[in-house]
């Protein structure tokens, strides 16, 4: 009888021990990997935007309207490089990009004495260098961005047909860029983002010079107070991008 009781107690103890071990095993949390945004990345972007430009005849030379405004839709593709640092949920970074665009628009305007006057706005490239600051929720990053922007623009204003006076410029202009975006990590290395940016560039003046004859290339209004065209530009861009982050 004692032997049977001892055996029963041993079986019961073994069963309780096994059940306790099984419960402890099931209760143990499963380790999950948390995405980290720290690292260097390269990527590409594509999208579209609206380019705005004002061509102002600031000295009202031969111009009844005084100003011609442009608003032109365009497409763009670009390359991106950057680096992020993550501290808890905070992500700080720096990003640069270089982009191609296809803005090319010509408008005609009226003169006091001549017909056929026109002004042309062209922008074929732009670039930015910006800081980024955002909040990370595992694989999702919400961020704001701001920094310096550059755009390569060409502006040409011609008076009369045939042209008797002209102002023109072709240069890289500096400005400011601000924006915001959302980025999602698809894997440890690949991420997909969407962002919006606004860029405003510096104003510039171009002297109106005579065209043709012995005064060609000289200021049409005299050397002491030359007539000028004033050009200003801004662009809005919405785009999507894919980034590859190096490391694991």
Mean of all residue-level pLDDT scores: 84
Structural class by secondary-structure content: mainly beta
Shape: elongated
Q: pLDDT under 50 segments (min length 5)?
A: 1-13, 23-32
Helix-strand string: HEEEEEEEEEE
Percent strand? over 45%
Distance between the termini: 65 Å
What about the largest sheet? 8 strands, antiparallel, barrel
Strands across the major sheet, in which order? 1-2-3-4-5-6-7-10
Number of strands: 10
Query: Nearest-angstrom radius of gyration?
Result: 32 Å
Oligomer: single chain
Summarize the structure in words.
- With 248 residues, this protein is mainly beta.
- It is built from one helix and ten strands; from the N terminus they run H-E-E-E-E-E-E-E-E-E-E.
- The protein has an eight-stranded antiparallel beta barrel with strand order 1-2-3-4-5-6-7-10.
- The longest helix has 26 residues, at 2-27.
- It is elongated.
- Residues 1-13 and 23-32 have low confidence and may be disordered.
Which structural traits does this protein have?
elongated, 248 residues, 10% helix, mainly beta, disordered N terminus
List the helices and strands and how they pair.
Blueprint: H1 2-27, E1 39-57, E2 67-87, E3 90-109, E4 117-137, E5 140-159, E6 165-185, E7 190-201, E8 204-207, E9 209-210, E10 228-245
Antiparallel strand pairs: 1-2, 1-10, 2-3, 3-4, 4-5, 5-6, 6-7, 6-9, 7-10, 8-10
The gist of it:
The chain has 248 residues and is mainly beta. The chain is built from 1 helix and 10 strands.
